Each structure stands twice: as C-alpha cells, then as structure tokens.
Amino acid sequence: PLLRWGLVLLFCLLAPAGFAKETKVRKAKAKAPRLVRIHSGHRLHRDAAAAFERMAAEARTAGQPLLVTSGWRSYQQQRFLWRRYRKGLGPKAARPGRSNHNRGLAVDLVVGSKEASPAYEWLAGNACRFGFRRTVKSEPWHWEYRPKSPSAPEDGADCLGRPLEVEPTPAVARQDAS
Question: Strand, coil or helix: what is 134?
Fold first, then answer.
C-alpha cells in the first residue's frame, strides 16, 4: 500500500508539469503567424508580405530589384543561427523568440556590403512608404515591417526628406521639345 501511495503522489506531482508544457505548446501553435509566400519563395506574415510585394514591384519599376535572402524563420532555425553566433561560427543573430524573423515581420535583402549601394539607397528613400524600416544599426540588409512606426514622408519628399525626382509628363516633354 505504501508503494502504491508513493506512485500516486509522484504522478500527482509530475502530471501538472506535463499538462502545463502541453498547454504552452498549444498556445504557441495558436499564436503562429499567418504566413504567405512572396515572389522569392520566402515566407512572411500576410500583412508584411502584401506590403513587401508592393514595395518590390515599385523597386523593380525603378530598376532596383529587391533580392530576399531570408524571411520567416522557425524557432528551431533561429536557435541554430543563435547558437552558431554564440560559438563565433556565424554572423550576429538574435535569441530565438526575440527575432521578428520568427514572427514573419523581418526580411533580409541583398544590399551589397555597404550602405552606399543602389539597393540600400532605394530602400532608405522608399521603404517607410510601405511600412518597412531598418531596425538593426549594424545590419543594413535587415528590414522590419512596422507599419505604425515609420512616419510618412512629406509630400514631394522621400523617406530621408530628399525631394522626389518627378518624371515630366508627356505633354510637358512635348512642349520642351518644340
């Protein structure tokens, strides 16, 4: 009888911990972002993806295609990258669960090695109009979708406050030619 009560007591002590873990897993799955594929095959949160596709289309029209190297990352992918970083084997990476890549709200883009590249210049001047902003000072390639945080540029200016180059309309161009 003593052994039986000991087992019952042990079960009662351990069972709530097991149930709590199961509940946490269920809650984590319920909070998973709604992801959609963007033109590059990477995935982003549906709102970020829609904004990114609009931004990418305008960038292509301006002759500056946006090439994606990373979008959404699973918790396990982020943990792998973070562990490599901690061991000195990889680039800087946020702790798993603290990266907006885990939420599908961050995108890494090919911008060249410096902030003076054409891709970076286009992003710096235009990304805020689509809700994206650069959030990691040491990473010019990392852009996050934060639609409420970037302030909209003033009329006739880009995101850096520079005057927009206005294309002449065909009627104006014809008048100038005569």
Answer: strand
